[in-house]
Amino acid sequence: MTAPWIETYRGAVSPWECDVTEHFTVAFYFDRVAMAEASLADALGLSDTLRAGGFARRYDVRYARELRAGSAFHVESAAIGNEPEMRLGHRFVDSVTGEAITWFDVHWDGVAAKLSPERIAAWDGPEFEDRADPQDLAHLIPTSAGRVQPGDLDEFGRMGICGVVHKFTDSSVQIGAAVGLTADYIKTARRGFSTFEFRVRVSGSLRLGDRYQTRTGIAHLGNSSLRFLHVMSDGDGREVARLGQYGVQLDLDARRPAALAPELRERALKLVTPG
Amino acid sequence: MGMWLETYRGAASPWECDITGHFTIAFYFDRIAIAEASLATRLGLTDLLRSGGFVRRYNVRLVNELHAGSAFHIESAAIGLEGGLRFGHRVVDSVTGGAITWVEVHWDGAAGRLPPDSVAAWDGPEFAARPAPANPGRLLPTGAGRVQPGDLDEFDFMGLRGMVHKFSDTAMQSICAIGLTPEYNKTDRRSYSTVELRLRIARMPRLGEAYRIGSGITHLGNTSVHFLHVMSDPESGREIARVDRYGVQLDLETRRPAPLAPALRKRAERLLFAAGQP
Predict the structure, then answer these.
(1) Which of B30, B148, B209 to mutate to test the interface with A (most CBs of A within 10 A)?
(2) CB 3.0-4.6 Å disulfide test: which of A227, B111, B164, B198 passes with B244?
(3) Packing angle of the helix pair A262-271, A161-179 (nearest 10 deg)
(4) Does residue B276 have a pLDDT over 70?
(5) What is the predicted ipTM?
């Protein structure tokens, strides 16, 4: 690691942080990125900006390799742009092999900062192509609802990015079940859904006890690939966050993408949201 | 003579177990924090515990493992008044009644007062003094992060569970560094099993505070490996807490200690930090 990249987290994956496919659950990547982001903000003199909030944050995430229970990893972070808005890069590194396994490209919309050029790192992660979200959200189906609990909060007293993504993960299980990718089907047909890209946009803020609801649709339906759009709103229906989740149906034995079975495709077609 | 009091009763949940299926050490500390606060209340020491300002030491001997679904309880008592206050907690298998883990706690120099007749006899193991390196500057980086809301205890400090979780992550980083990776666990059926742990807390950090942890090996035997983990403030370098962890490499099939393979031993030797070395 060379400056201006700094180490912002180091630790390991606990067994209870893994999902039914035994992979490190995506929400816990965000648990660690929340720490990395706050530590990087400290280092850049932007703690007060992050604490005050009031701007949209976008997290573009590419998952290249999975982590499992007991995996040792660390996070390296740097500012990768400051004009016209702050852009932060985080790379998850396997501490044993030294290989970057997940990339976070984070934008703080409308927040510029004066940083000397030597504090801006070159971004060696993937580029994220623009993906247009559907405009008509009327056909999204309800996939989660609840209230913000103490365990959802971040160190600033708001619902944290980890808490938000946990709810989206529930939504993902709900939409998967609606398509027919149920827990039983996963066991008997040996199929699962594997996410390789996340696009999260957090535009609002929820506090302890606030109500939320999430609605989901399918923004893209390929042969084996699907892109889900999840939109979280507050109790008054105002959007607070959205997630574009890109992945493929996986053959759990071959560990390769697999085409949707006809009955699942038929169900999925009904959930496709008009562009 | 003082009485032993029941200060916790419950069970081990599946999500509280580690990759070898054992109740994770950090969750023992989750329950010990409850036991400690309950005992402090019974002894009129709650305000002292809440305000802190003294060093706490936890000497832990793990005798038998708990697994998912194990029912257990904790019995606690004041066991000494020398140099501060000393408490004992024994973790008891609720089915067999046998003590399976012993925790001896020192509040060094704590100003609390207890009448001598409140002190119970300690029937747990004695913890001999073990020399440790004084200067943690040469340790391998194994942990970094910030105190998060889920790490806090009932007094709004980083709690025992939160702190020991960080040290558990550090233990994974350390054993991976010598080659005891999850893949090696699977293919060679080897793992690391902790038998004794010494935790010393100089102060409890607050929400949002950053920490760093460094680790080294203080003893390398045939099957035994002792690690030192030191948590410190990244700004000042001042020590927050440290753990001395004593354990063995375990053959997961025979459940017996097993010598380190030559490749792992070579890596471990590079992390060896002689006891007493400055």
Answers:
(1) B148
(2) B198
(3) 120
(4) no
(5) 0.85
